[in-house]
Amino acid sequence: MKIGDKVWLLPLRRNRSGIKESFISKCGNKYIYVDACPRDKFDKNNGYEVTEYTPSYRIFFTLEELELYNETIQLKDKITSFFYNGKVGKLNIDQLRSIHKILEGTT
Taking the domains of the chain in order of start, what are their residue ranges? Predict the structure, then answer.
């Protein structure tokens, strides 16, 4: 990564909207600065905005990385809502065994 490389900013708070394209304006050993948020710095290792509070943005260095992150979040939300909305009770024994087999593979 170097000055001028394109990055994508994903808003992490509900009051922020839309993915922004930006460019790296400054790149140090630990932090990256981008044109879209000139006063904010981002951790070079994980892409999160460095702040004392909850980060407002996370940067991604490739569009594919951003899309994979978004898909992961969406799938986690769908799976979580499935279990919390009581839909598990409607599954038959074969479906429950299949889910159990998948979950056993994660431990």
Answer: 1-61, 63-107
